[in-house]
Design goal:
- There is one protein chain.
- The longest helix is centred in the middle third of the chain and has 15 residues.
- It contains 3 helices and 5 strands.
Length: 123
Amino acid sequence: MKLELPKITRTTLALYAGASGDHNPMHIDIDVAKSGGMDDVFAHGMLNMAYLGRLLTANFPQERIRSFGVRFTAITPIHAKPVATAQVAKVVDGDTHLDLTMALADGTVTLRGTAVIEGEIAA
């Protein structure tokens, strides 16, 4: 399964900040980001997790999603076009375990995660 996402823009970050209540200036204020040693603002980690959640809910009814977790491995810079993927890792006791990734065009993986889906699914 794969979900190609639109380019992360300043508008994307501002809208996410408003919707989530996460107004950390590292994500919306270039001067603050630069004072922290970054070249520019970057995407909220939880925005990327939400995109992975969208991949799951686009493919499975919510009531079948038993667990979903990630770890953040790199930042998603402004203007990146991340791609969310899910692959079947194994089936245990009839439930499907997925390996999840969010990656950038250069191969950088920004999130790694897992999900458990009730029942078996086609690989």
